[in-house]
Design brief:
Layout: E1 2-4, H1 19-24, H2 33-46, H3 49-54, E2 72-85, E3 88-99, E4 102-115, E5 118-126
Antiparallel strand pairs: 1-2, 2-3, 3-4, 4-5
C-alpha cells in the first residue's frame, strides 16, 4: 500500500481539470483514481448523471441515480489518496454543499478499481 499526498486543492479552470473527462466521456479516461474523483465531483455539480453512471463500476452501479438539483455545491477537498496496488486505490475527501439554507459536509473514503486501463468508482464509506 502506498499512501500519497493528495494533489494541491487549488482551483483550476474547468477546461484544465475535469472538462476533458466530462466533455469527451468514454474517449478520455482519468489517469488515476484521484483525477476520477475530482471529475465525478464536477459531474455532481453539473448534474451529469450520465457521466456518474458511466464511471461507476458495474458491480455496484445503481439502476437509477437521483440527483438533488436544489443542492448548491460549494467545494471539494481531497484529504488523502492511497494506492493499494496497480488496480485499486482509495480517495478520502470532503465535499461541501448547501441545501435548503443548511450547510452539509460529506466526508467519504471512496474505493476505486481499474479495469482494462479505466478507473471506476466502486463504493464509499461515509465518515
Amino acid at each position: 500500500m502506498k499512501a500519497t499526498k493528495a494533489s494541491k486543492n487549488q482551483r483550476l479552470p474547468f477546461a484544465a481539470c475535469c472538462g476533458p473527462y466530462l466533455n469527451e466521456g468514454a474517449a478520455t479516461s482519468a489517469a488515476d483514481a484521484e483525477t476520477l474523483m475530482r471529475s465525478r465531483y464536477s459531474a455532481f455539480v453539473l448534474g451529469r448523471r450520465d457521466y456518474l453512471l458511466a464511471t461507476w463500476h458495474a458491480s455496484t452501479r445503481p439502476a437509477n441515480l437521483a440527483l438533488d438539483f436544489a443542492a448548491k455545491w460549494l467545494g471539494l477537498e481531497v484529504l488523502a489518496y492511497t494506492t493499494l496496488d496497480d488496480d485499486n486505490a482509495e480517495v478520502e475527501f470532503v465535499a461541501r454543499y448547501r441545501e435548503g439554507g443548511r450547510a452539509v459536509r460529506l466526508h467519504e473514503c471512496s474505493r476505486f478499481v481499474r479495469e482494462q486501463g479505466r478507473w471506476y468508482y466502486l463504493n464509499g464509506a461515509l465518515s
